[in-house]
Specification:
With about 450 residues, the chain is α/β, with parallel strands linked by helices. It is built from 15 helices and 19 strands. The strands form 2 sheets. The chain has a 12-stranded mixed β-sheet, with helices on both faces. Strands 4-3-2-5-6-7-9 form a 7-stranded parallel β-sheet. The structure holds ligand NAX and potassium ion (K). Homotetramer. It catalyses: (6S)-NADHX + ADP = AMP + phosphate + NADH + H(+); (6S)-NADPHX + ADP = AMP + phosphate + NADPH + H(+); (6R)-NADPHX = (6S)-NADPHX; (6R)-NADHX = (6S)-NADHX.
């Protein structure tokens, strides 16, 4: 797990005050990290266009130009001149080297966007928009310095932003890079150390980036076991029964010892999935909500009142009957539209999906502050898993999963782990990593995945 911060100003301050580093040293390391990336990935003499803004993001770009000069064909373009003190200092240094500034954007092997970084504080004017649009149209490798220009500190893209292949971000990972709106722009993300190892200046945080190693698969270590050792999941199937059946199959493939679909009508199920008309006596986890439609309210109330680990999905986020359950340890897996309905139901906010997507971290925090026992998994391009004060970010999401049925597989995977005695947070984290990494491993065209493909990939992780 890596740390993610809302702001990194306090980390810079720690470098200055506690370790007596200077802004110049920090910037030199920032620029060196990008130089190293270019040296490792591109042949000498390649042309590098560096577009530098007026502030310290531009200053990073100027320092990079100095470091690459002579080994690479460096083209510095400063559409707004140098305004910050550091930008002026760096500009002076490149001029002393004899580096001439370019007056326009031209085709190059590599483009570095050092126009705006964390200081973007107003709408882009026409000149900046034209620059960004022109850069985006270039058929070259694109590197963003710190953050792609046009993405603000919250990760919002209100007009346009630079499409980076790689973003080399300064000092530490920032929330802005992980908002869904930023996902198409940031590319691969790397972090540049600021003169000392990152682990030295990084402070405690409550936002974490999940890594593959955080996935704790339900591998069976004990030899002396039986099916009851791995729990009995009950999936409540409603009017769209397929959703419950998909969840049940996924759960079985992820290790639950027994899986039953609870349904009043007789339904066709694979032979390894059982059917029951009411909750099983030995049920160790419940999955409810997927494809539920209109169900008998009293019966749902009775099911939700059980003190059995439960995951709630889909249709139930619109129903007041879940409010009582939110006081307990339960897993919720809404997509943005369902989360908006839930926020309204809980009287936290009455917002549109567009508003939610602009501030995903904020609304997850608000919800988890009000319901600290709940594990909330907000679906999206980058899934956010919130519990109490903490948020875990899964950035492995892929559009391969943008399909009906993918969410039912996820519910089934989480439910399976709940049935196998994982706690709610661990179940949500491992199941979600398994879900996204399985989709990443899927080798056929990215439009073609069906739920059973996903379950097959989960089995191979
Ligand atoms: N603080 C530090 O210690 C470090 C900062 N570094 C760099 O410094 C950057 C932050 O520098 P700054 O705070 O100077 O901010 P930026 O360089 O990101 O932007 C500020 C400048 O852009 C202008 N500006 C902002 N929004 C604009 C818009 N929409 N249209 C036109 N002009 C606009 C501002 O008027 C100002 O001149 C970071 O992103 C990073 O790249 C790195 O060198 C590492 C160390
Ligand atoms: K930038």
């Amino acid at each position: 797990m890596q740390h993610i911060y809302y702001e990194v100003g306090s980390l810079d301050k720690k470098c200055y005050e506690k370790f007596a580093l200077t802004e110049d040293i920090l910037m030199e390391h920032a620029a060196s990290s990008i130089a190293r990336f270019i040296e490792e990935n591109f042949e000498k003499k390649s042309s590098v266009l560096i577009v530098c803004g007026p502030g310290n993001n531009g200053a990073d770009g100027l320092a990079l130009g100095r470091l690459l000069y002579k080994e690479y064909e460096v083209k510095l373009y400063l559409p707004f001149g140098a305004k910050s003190q550091m930008a002026k200092l760096q500009k002076n240094r490149v001029e002393l080297l004899g580096l001439t500034l370019h007056e326009e954007i031209s085709e190059s092997d590599i483009v570095v966007d050092a126009l705006f970084g964390s200081g973007l504080n107003k709408d882009l004017d026409e000149t900046s928009l034209n620059i960004i649009n022109t850069l985006n149209q270039l058929n070259t490798y694109k590197i963003a310095c710190d953050i792609p220009s046009g993405i603000n500190i919250k990760g919002q893209v209100n007009q346009e932003a630079f499409y980076a292949d790689t973003t080399i971000t300064m000092g530490a990972l920032k929330v802005a890079l992980f908002n869904d709106e930023a996902k198409d722009y940031v590319g691969k993300i790397e972090v540049a150390n600021l003169g000392i190892q990152r682990s030295i200046y990084e402070e405690k945080t409550n936002i974490f980036l999940l890594e593959k190693e955080d996935m704790n698969l339900p591998l069976r270590n004990k030899k002396n076991s039986h099916k009851g050792s791995f729990g009995h999941l009950n999936v409540i199937a409603g009017c769209k029964k397929g959703a419950g059946i998909i969840a049940a199959k996924a759960a079985f493939g992820f290790g639950a010892g027994l899986v039953s679909v609870v349904c009043h009508e007789d339904i066709d199920l694979p032979y390894h999935i059982m059917q029951t008309h009411f909750l099983s006596d030995n049920c160790t986890a419940i999955a409810i909500g997927m494809g539920l439609g209109k169900y008998e309210t009293e019966e749902i109330k009775t099911i939700l009142a059980k003190e059995i680990p439960t995951i709630i999905d889909a249709d139930l986020f619109y129903e007041e009957i879940i409010l009582e359950k939110l006081k307990s340890d339960v897993v919720l897996t809404p997509h943005p539209k369902e989360f908006c309905a839930l926020l309204k139901l809980c009287e936290i906010a009455d917002i549109s999906v567009i508003q939610l997507q602009k501030d995903r971290f904020e609304y997850v925090s608000k919800f988890c502050n009000k319901y600290p026992k709940v594990t909330l998994l907000l679906k999206g391009a980058n899934v956010l898993i919130g519990k109490d004060k903490e948020i875990y970010v899964n950035s492995f999401g892929t559009s391969t999963l943008s399909k009906g049925g993918s969410g039912d597989v996820l519910s089934g995977l989480i439910a399976s782990l709940l049935a196998q005695s994982y706690n709610s947070l661990d179940a949500a984290i491992t199941a979600n990593l398994a879900h996204t990494l399985a989709a990443k491993n899927y080798k056929k065209n990215n439009y073609s995945l069906i739920p059973s493909d996903l379950v097959e990939e989960v089995k191979k992780l």
